[in-house]
Design goal:
278 residues, C-N_Hydrolase_sf, transferase, Nitrilase/N-carbamoyl-D-aminoacid amidohydrolase, 6 helices, seven-stranded mixed β-sheet, six-stranded mixed β-sheet, alpha+beta
Length: 278
C-alpha cells in the first residue's frame, strides 16, 4: 500500500501552562517528534498555546487574524518540518474588547494557512450535582455554522470541529455530506465530562459517519485549577481505537489511515446512503 493510501497522522496531547512561550516551546518539540516519526499531519489540542489562570487571560494574548507570535510559530513549524498542522485553537481578535474567536487554523507543509474554523458551539454548562460550571460565551464569540469547513489535504478531505462540537452530531453529518473523510476535534475536555463521555462521543461520531476521527486532548491540572481528561484518540471509521494516549502527560500518538479500507466500508456498508431524515 502506498503512502498516499496509508498516510500517518499524529494527535498531540498537552498539559498547557498559563504562559504562551513555554507552551510554544513544548508544542514545537512535540510537533518535531511527530514529524520524525513520519506524520504527514499533526493536530494540536484546544487552547494549546494558553490555559490561563483566568478565562480573561486569553484576551491579553489574542492576535489579529494572520499575524502574531502564535500564528507565526505554527506557520514556521509547518514549513520547517514539511508538516501539515491543525493548530488546535488560538484566540483571534474579533472586534469586541472582552471576547475573542476560538479559531482553529490549518497550515500546509509549506507554512501557508489554508483554513480557519471558529468554534460554533460554546461550552456554557454546569455539571450535574456539582458546583463546577463553565461559560465560554463570556470570553468567546461563536463562529458561523455555514458552510462546514472541509478542505483537501494529503490525508484526504479534512473536516474541522472543536471539543464541545462532539455533542452535536448534525455538524458531523454536515461535514461528511461536504465530503470529509477525516475529522479533527482538538479538545480540552474536562475530567468530569471526559471520564463519562469522551470515548463514547468520539467513537460514535466516527462510526455514524464512517470517518477517521483525530481527537487530541488537554490533560492534567492547569493554572485555573481546571483538570482535563487526556486520553487523546485516533479512531478509525469502524470505531476502533487505533491510538490512545496512555499517560497524564505531554504525548504524541500516531496511527496510519487506511484510505482504501475506509472507501470499502462506505461502499459495502452504505448507511450514509440509507438516511431517511435530514
Amino acid at each position: 500500500m502506498s503512502a498516499l493510501d496509508s498516510p500517518t497522522v499524529a494527535a498531540i496531547q498537552m498539559s498547557s501552562l498559563g504562559e504562551v512561550a513555554p507552551n510554544l516551546a513544548l508544542a514545537g518539540d512535540l510537533l518535531a517528534e511527530a514529524a520524525r516519526q513520519g506524520a504527514q499531519l499533526a493536530v494540536l489540542p484546544e487552547n494549546f498555546a494558553l490555559m490561563g489562570a483566568r478565562e480573561t487571560d486569553k484576551l491579553g494574548v489574542a492576535e489579529r487574524d494572520g499575524e502574531g507570535t502564535i500564528q507565526d510559530f505554527l506557520a514556521e513549524t509547518a514549513r520547517a518540518h514539511g508538516l501539515w498542522i491543525v493548530g488546535g485553537t488560538i484566540p483571534i481578535a474579533g472586534g469586541e474588547p472582552d471576547r475573542v474567536y476560538p479559531a482553529c487554523p490549518v497550515y500546509d507543509d509549506s507554512g501557508n494557512r489554508v483554513a480557519r474554523y471558529d468554534k460554533i458551539h460554546l461550552f456554557d454548562v454546569g455539571m450535574p450535582d456539582s458546583a463546577e460550571a463553565y461559560r465560554e460565551s463570556a470570553t468567546f464569540i461563536a463562529g458561523t455554522p455555514e458552510p462546514p469547513q472541509v478542505l483537501d489535504t494529503p490525508i484526504g478531505k479534512l473536516g474541522l470541529s472543536i471539543c464541545y462540537d462532539l455533542r452535536f452530531p448534525e455538524l458531523y453529518r454536515a461535514l461528511t455530506a461536504a465530503g470529509a473523510e477525516v475529522i479533527v476535534a482538538p479538545s480540552a475536555f474536562t475530567h468530569t465530562t471526559g471520564s463519562a463521555h469522551w470515548h463514547v462521543l468520539t467513537r460514535a461520531r466516527a462510526i455514524e459517519n464512517l470517518v477517521t476521527l483525530i481527537a487530541p486532548n488537554q490533560v492534567g491540572h492547569h493554572a485555573s485549577g481546571r483538570r482535563t481528561y487526556g486520553h487523546s484518540l485516533i479512531v478509525d471509521p469502524w470505531g476502533q481505537i487505533k491510538a490512545e494516549a496512555q499517560t497524564e502527560a505531554n504525548e504524541v500518538i500516531l496511527a496510519r489511515i487506511d484510505r482504501r479500507r475506509a472507501a470499502e466500508l462506505r461502499s459495502g456498508f452504505p448507511c450514509l446512503a440509507h438516511r431517511r431524515l435530514g
